[in-house]
Structures are given as structure tokens and as C-alpha cells.
Amino acid sequence: MADGIKVDIEKLMPCMAFGCTLASFYPDWPDCIGFKSEGICICCEIDVAGCKVGSKPRDDVLVVCFAGSYYCVKPTTCCKLQNQCFCIDGRAALPCDEDHTPMMCTICCITCCMSKKKNIAVGKKLGDIRGGGAPVVSDDMER
Questions:
Q1: Measuring CA to CA, which residue among 36, 33, 35 is closest to residue 54?
Q2: Over the stretch 14-66, which tens digit does the pLDDT of each residue have?
Q3: How confident is the model at residue 101 (pLDDT cuts 50, 70, 90)?
Q4: pLDDT tens, 114-142?
Q5: Is residue 2 a part of any domain in this protein?
Q6: How far apart are CA 18 and CA 135, in angstroms?
Q7: Is the distance from CB of 68 to CB of 6 less than 8 angstroms?
């Protein structure tokens, strides 16, 4: 199974995002090598990975050539999808999910809004934007 292989959302650099969709650059070397897809749509779930060198489910594995599974599951959400192919990551969710696909607005790597708060960041990783390292303007600031 590909469950032990994850794309760290904190290391993604948003390029384009609107609402509950997000396209990002994934510059984390060597984890960006290969592909990882996971998702659920009503009762169908997929979790596959291949050609992964950096992210491995166990210490004795050298390269994950292909690992995957398909399931029919009890519905818990409408739709949640994530696809990573080398340095490009695309994801979407309905409804939005802060841990998977945060609600945000990003155009040409300039994030102007995240999680319903003004948050201006240019070329920053999601971990920096969420952690408060990048905001120039925030609704939480005292005036």
C-alpha cells in the first residue's frame, strides 16, 4: 500500500489557487521524485504511488516502484483529491479541508487570502504562510 508515502502540504509552494482547488510547486528534494495520487469521491478511494526514492513506507525499501490500492468505503466527505507528479502538486476538496486543501486565493505565486483571512505572501511555502512567517496583512492584527 502507498499509505506510508505522503506529500507534506507544509512544503508546497502555491502557484494558483481559488476556493478549494490548489496547484503548487513541490520543491522538496528527493521526495518530489515520482508520483503520488490519493483521493476519495463519495465511496470510492484510491491511494497509489510510484518511482518514489525519498519517501518510503519502510526503512528496508530502496525505491517504491509502484504501490497502490483501491477501496469502496463508507462515505465521509464529498470529494478530496491530491496528485503529485515530480515537482507539481494539484489538489481539490469539496468541502474545503484545512489539512488537505485550505481555502485560498493565489495567482502567479502571490497569495492574497487564506482560510478567510487576508494574508499576502509571495513565493512562500504553505507552512510559512500558515505559521505566520509570511503575512504582511492579517485580520487578526490590532489597529
A1: 33
A2: 999 998 999 999 998 888 889 999 999 999 999 999 988 876 677 888 888 99
A3: confident
A4: 877 777 888 888 888 877 544 333 333 33
A5: no
A6: 18
A7: no
DSSP annotation string for 114-143? ETTEEEEEES--HHHHHHTSS-SS-TTS--
Q: What pLDDT shows up at residue 26?
A: 92
Cell numbers of 61, please?
Answer: 525499501
> For residue 61, is it within any domain?
yes
- Tell whether 138 is covered by a domain: no
Q: What is the distance between the alpha carbons of residues 121 and 128, in angstroms, rounded to a whole number?
A: 9
Q: Which residues contact 27 (CB under 8 A, 6 or more apart)?
A: 11, 13, 87
* Strands annotated E in 63-124: 64-72, 79-85, 88-94, 104-107, 110-114, 117-122
